[in-house]
UniProtKB/TrEMBL annotation:
The lineage of its organism: Bacteria, Bacillati, Chloroflexota, Tepidiformia, Tepidiformales. It comes from Tepidiforma bonchosmolovskayae. It catalyses: 2'-deoxyribonucleotide-(2'-deoxyribose 5'-phosphate)-2'-deoxyribonucleotide-DNA = a 3'-end 2'-deoxyribonucleotide-(2,3-dehydro-2,3-deoxyribose 5'-phosphate)-DNA + a 5'-end 5'-phospho-2'-deoxyribonucleoside-DNA + H(+); Hydrolysis of DNA containing ring-opened 7-methylguanine residues, releasing 2,6-diamino-4-hydroxy-5-(N-methyl)formamidopyrimidine. DNA binds at R114, R153. Binds 1 zinc ion per subunit. Involved in base excision repair of DNA damaged by oxidation or by mutagenic agents. Acts as DNA glycosylase that recognizes and removes damaged bases. Has a preference for oxidized purines, such as 7,8-dihydro-8-oxoguanine (8-oxoG). Has AP (apurinic/apyrimidinic) lyase activity and introduces nicks in the DNA strand. Cleaves the DNA backbone by beta-delta elimination to generate a single-strand break at the site of the removed base with both 3'- and 5'-phosphates. The active site is at P2 (schiff-base intermediate with dna), E3 (proton donor), K61 (proton donor), R262 (proton donor). This is Formamidopyrimidine-DNA glycosylase. HAMAP family: Fapy_DNA_glycosyl.
Length: 286
DNA sequence: ATATACTCCTGCATGC
DNA sequence: TGCATGCAGGAGTATA
């Protein structure tokens, strides 16, 4: 399940390998319909073949290949996507669905067991990422801006964190980890969180994402980096998929529930429910 | 507008 | 043992 730290690890791995390389050809398994979202393969090939990759960026969970004609090839790994760099004559990857042939004898190999991943070429990067919220790790994101996103919302705080229009890059793993680090129950209505709780959450989101990057991502099942190697972050998770196991902080068994339609893991002792709707003085808009 | 349900697809764990 | 069921959870779309 590639989230921001996993996609960022892939970006860092691949950027030096693909920058300045020219795309020779594109091959896509005809059964992989989802990938091109209705765009004919020939259209995609015409967009990519002959183009030189200027840079490789990332926004939220999107990989953004900047092409030499000013356009952008956006790739989203969704749940089981992988993108690895391989010699052209290497055997196919497991569940390989597509490949991009480069001019130096290497390919970018696209694997995707469940075929949810998407590729698309856009005239501007904003077409892809314009609707995304700020990234929690953005140094320019202030605590006040962070808090404002939760104001007045009745949805569970977890659902707000997962909504890419609110914040970009968090997925199920890092949301559960951040809420544990902030000692917040995931089903707490977002608008009921105290200023102090939101301060903890602001710091926790940054910390868990930074730690995920430092550990080169979490490989619970499908994720591998740009070389095909697993990350290490799954060895350090506090609550995600630890149902029934003792909390590292207090020993209480970790519980599992469904919040916002997703499997959710939390410590019932460290993450106490909101006491009751907190009555706060009406605050003058600033 | 917001919040929720459903859908895409496949492998694997579970339970009868 | 075999087979059915449901779970995994990104995000676009549909619906209340």
């Amino acid at each position: 399940m590639p989230e921001l730290p996993e996609v960022e690890t892939i970006r860092r791995d691949l950027a030096p390998l693909v920058t300045g390389r020219t795309i020779v050809d594109v091959e896509v398994d005809p059964g992989t319909i989802h990938l091109l979202a209705g765009v004919p393969l020939e259209t995609l090939r015409a967009s990519l073949a002959g183009r030189t990759i200027r840079s490789l960026g990332r926004r939220g969970k999107y990989l953004l290949f900047e092409l030499d004609d000013g356009r952008w090839w956006a790739a989203h790994l969704r749940m089981t996507g992988r993108l690895v760099w391989r010699p052209h004559d290497a055997p196919p990857e497991p569940y390989e669905r597509a490949r991009v042939v480069l001019d130096d004898g290497h390919d970018l190999r696209w694997s995707d067991l469940r075929k949810f991943g998407t590729w698309r070429v856009h005239a501007s990067a904003d077409e892809v990422v314009g609707r995304l919220g700020p990234e929690p790790i953005d140094p320019g994101l202030t605590a006040a801006q962070f808090r404002r996103v939760f104001e007045g919302r009745t949805a569970p705080v977890k659902a707000v964190l997962l909504d890419q229009r609110r914040f970009a890059g968090l997925g199920n793993i890092y949301v559960d980890e951040a809420l544990f680090a902030a000692r917040i129950r995931p089903d707490t209505p977002a608008g009921q969180l105290s200023r102090a709780a939101l301060g903890r959450l602001y710091r926790a989101c940054r910390e868990v994402l930074e730690r995920g990057i430092a550990h080169r991502g979490a490989s619970f099942r499908d994720y591998v980096d740009g070389q095909g190697n697993e990350g290490r972050q799954h060895m350090f998770v506090q609550v995600f998929r630890r149902t029934g196991k003792p909390c590292y902080a207090c020993g209480t068994p970790i519980e599992r529930s469904i919040v916002g339609g997703r499997a959710t893991h939390y410590c019932p002792r460290c993450q106490r429910p909101a006491r009751r709707p907190q009555r706060r003085e009406a605050r003058r808009a600033g």
